[in-house]
Write a structure and sequence with these properties.
The chain is of the alpha+beta class and 708 residues long. It has five domains: 125 residues, Rossmann fold (3-Layer(aba) Sandwich), CATH 3.40.50.140; 155 residues, Topoisomerase I, domain 2; 132 residues, Topoisomerase I, domain 3 (Distorted Sandwich); 123 residues, Topoisomerase I, domain 4 (Orthogonal Bundle); 40 residues, no CATH class. The protein contains 17 helices and 29 strands. Strands 8-9-15-14-11-16 form a six-stranded antiparallel β-barrel. β12 and β13 form a beta hairpin.
């Protein structure tokens, strides 16, 4: 009984840690939580200090038995779940389930799966932190109370299968609020006037400037008549340069990634959803097979609000910058960044490579395409965060002619600094980078090449993209960044919102649910209320307040609102959305319905006519089998995507692979898109014996660059 047992959440994590610790340790995985609140009941005793009723999760019995058997065979057991509230709660439940003493030094914590971090953690075990456990338990109970009390109300008053939640309802409120702003927006016309000028003595040095003042007052041009009148006057004026200002400005790199900023940038640069980003990041954190190294954790822990960097990682990073880019890209002192993390999260680091010297191009052969793209994004961002600031040369020129003042702004990069590697993307693209202006001197007379009036209209606020929504939720202190992927998934699956052109729009159902909650539960959908709740949970984690009192303070007013709402809300009748598809059996126009796998078409004549159809996304490719139908995207009963002929059942052609738009240039047969780690995405012929393959060009693939 000399062996020691280490229990982690996932098999992948267990495999990586087992390689590090060696044969004297057994490393087992719990596969996440082993107990939870049952789905079939509230499982919270509101009258008895909100005591939760936990049960063993279905399917975990065998795992628990294996863990109990392993515990009997060793002298020491260490719980090495994730270093956050959720991980602490999993350790606490494991301790109770396996009859371990939570007050003993059985808990180890690390923020990266590396030999250095694991060995350091093994030397400093500690008791389970009950404050963290209580914070997680308070959140879980609040979510259960809000969700399980509100959702049945929506079933009774709107439609079965709906849900409401402490955070998802606030996210829906933000989207609906933005839609109301857009609906209420009144567009206004305005005009601008741009002049193309050049110095009389330097005819080749053409530059553009904007009209900013007339008679010393800020210009406002409401319509074309005013713009045309100004244009005629300007064209007759004589202009000269009255002011030239030159200055330098430094642009500093963005901090290394937190959970939220990683989700935002992966959405902007790579086109990844929050869920996809978190899934890939989890794989990179837990460990992947990297050639002769075996299973290796490539990045630090992915659920963090901190931007702190370990000193040794910073030093390693500076060596990489010096070697790869040169001393002009290395600042005299390592940059530091202010963190928003709470006191309980101060030990956390930003998301960074575990070994900075493990270059993206070196690990690329061992990663999937998307794993590589995310790792490269994290590596680039981290390295750039430690690089020299960029230096910009800015120039502002003012020119005057009679009553008119024009202004031109120019900039150019004097020293690229971190921009040579990485530049953070923006959601608003209003600030355009302008080119540098020619060498202009005060007093120089100017000639006019053209005066160009241009019509504009004020624009409503933009709908939320996924990156914008994540950013807003974080800025307002709503929920935790690690839960945003689930929140966004939920409001989409419930058909409260749809994505159109990568922007969230509320559906009629979403608007109805939001209005019902806003009118009857104003506190539940109030972002400030939800943010205060998050602050209270942080205080529970820090041991400053009692978790039961915290739950009671939020639940009791909600309970009163719920009783009033159950009596006062009338049943809401939602009309089905009518499609343009005619039922081939009875001639009625089919309507959109919602099922387990999303939207489908159904005949409104039910039960007399029971015709239903899947909604088919066309690919624009002719069926290679019947030559009549079109290949469309479909879903299997298990929700898996596949492709088939729209003439089914007359034609039963199907393919798991997306069809390519063009036929094989060598034999004329049907081609599909495939992907492999070594080849990337490529087009290949499906005819047996034909060897045609062609890589997909970068611009044809989804997503964007991970660089600047």
């Amino acid at each position: 009984m000399s062996e020691k047992l280490v229990i982690v959440e996932s098999p992948a994590k267990a495999k990586t840690i087992s390689k590090i610790l060696g044969r004297s340790y057994r490393v087992k995985a719990s596969n996440g939580h082993v107990v939870d609140l049952p789905r079939s009941q509230l499982a919270v005793d509101v009258k008895n200090d909100f005591k939760p009723k936990y049960i063993t999760i279905r399917g975990r019995g065998k795992i628990i038995k294996e863990l109990k058997d392993s515990v009997k065979k060793v002298k020491e057991v260490y719980l090495a779940t994730d270093p956050d509230r959720e991980g602490e709660a999993i350790s606490w439940h494991l301790a109770q389930t396996l009859d371990l003493n939570p007050e003993a030094s059985c808990r180890i914590e690390f923020h990266e799966i590396t030999k250095r971090a694991i060995e350091a953690a093994m030397k400093t075990p500690r008791p389970i932190d009950l404050n963290r456990v209580n914070a997680q338990q308070a959140r879980r109970i609040l979510d259960r109370l809000f969700g399980y009390k509100l959702s049945p109300l929506l079933w009774a008053k709107v439609r079965r299968g709906l849900s409401a939640g402490r955070v998802q309802s606030v996210a829906l409120r933000l989207i609906c609020q933005r839609e109301a702003e857009i609906d209420g927006f009144k567009q206004e016309e305005y005009w601008s006037i741009t002049g193309d000028f050049y110095p009389v003595a330097q005819e080749g040095d053409l530059f553009s400037a904007q009209l900013v003042k007339v008679n010393g007052k800020k210009v406002k041009i409401p319509d074309q008549a005013t713009a045309s009148a100004l244009q005629k006057r300007i064209e007759k004026a004589s202009f000269r340069i009255i002011d030239v200002k030159k200055r330098e400005r430094k642009r500093y790199p963005a901090a290394p990634f937190t959970t939220s900023t990683l989700q935002q940038e992966a959405s902007r640069k790579l086109g990844f959803s929050a869920r996809k980003t978190m899934s890939l990041a989890q794989q990179l954190y837990e460990g992947l097979e990297i050639g002769g190294e075996g299973s290796v954790g490539l990045i630090t822990y992915i659920r963090t609000d901190a931007v702190r960097i370990a000193q040794e990682a910073q030093e390693e990073c500076r060596k990489i910058i010096l070697a790869r880019f040169g001393k002009e890209y290395l600042p005299a002192k390592p940059p530091t960044y202010k963190t928003k993390a709470t006191a309980a999260q101060e030990a956390h680091e930003a998301i960074r490579p575990t070994v900075v010297g493990r270059l993206p191009e070196e690990v690329k052969p061992f990663l999937s395409r998307d794993q590589f793209r995310l790792y490269q994004l994290i590596w680039n961002r981290f390295i750039a965060s430690q690089m020299q600031a960029a230096v910009l040369d800015l120039m502002t020129v003012e020119l005057e002619g009679e009553a008119f003042l024009f202004r031109a702004n120019g900039r150019k990069i004097k020293a690229p600094g971190f921009l040579i590697l990485y530049q953070e993307d923006r959601d608003d693209k209003d600030e355009e980078e302008t080119g540098y202006l020619p060498d202009l001197q005060v007093g120089a007379d100017l000639s006019i090449k053209a005066i160009r009036p241009e019509q504009h209209f004020t624009q409503p606020p933009a709908r939320y993209s996924e990156a914008m929504l994540v950013k807003t939720l974080e800025e307002k202190g709503i929920g935790r960044p690690s839960t945003y992927a689930t929140i966004i998934d939920t409001i989409r699956k419930r058909n409260y919102v749809v994505l159109e052109n990568k922007r969230f729009m509320p559906t009629e159902l979403g608007l109805v649910v939001d209005r019902l909650l806003k009118e009857n539960f104003p506190r539940v959908v109030d972002p400030d209320f939800t943010a205060r709740m998050e602050e209270k949970l942080d205080q529970v984690e820090e041991g400053a307040v009692d978790w039961v009192d915290t739950v009671r303070d939020f639940y009791e007013p909600f309970s009163s609102e719920l009783k009033k709402a159950e009596e006062s809300i009338e049943r809401v009748q939602l009309a089905d959305e009518v499609s343009t598809v005619k039922c081939e059996y009875c001639g009625r126009m089919m309507v959109y319905k919602y099922g387990r796998y999303g939207r489908f078409l159904a005949c409104p004549g039910y039960p007399d006519c029971k015709n239903v159809k899947s909604i088919q996304k066309e690919t624009g490719v002719t069926c290679p089998e019947c030559k009549k139908g079109q290949i469309v995207e479909r879903r299997s009963k298990k929700g898996r995507k596949f492709y088939g002929c729209n003439q089914y059942p007359a034609c039963e052609f199907t393919s798991w692979y997306q069809p390519a738009k063009d036929s094989c240039p060598e034999c004329g047969s049907f081609c599909v898109l495939k992907y492999s780690k070594t080849k990337g995405e490529y087009v290949t012929c499906t005819r047996q014996g034909c060897s045609y393959q062609q890589p997909v060009k970068k611009e044809e693939t989804e997503g964007g660059s991970t660089g600047a």
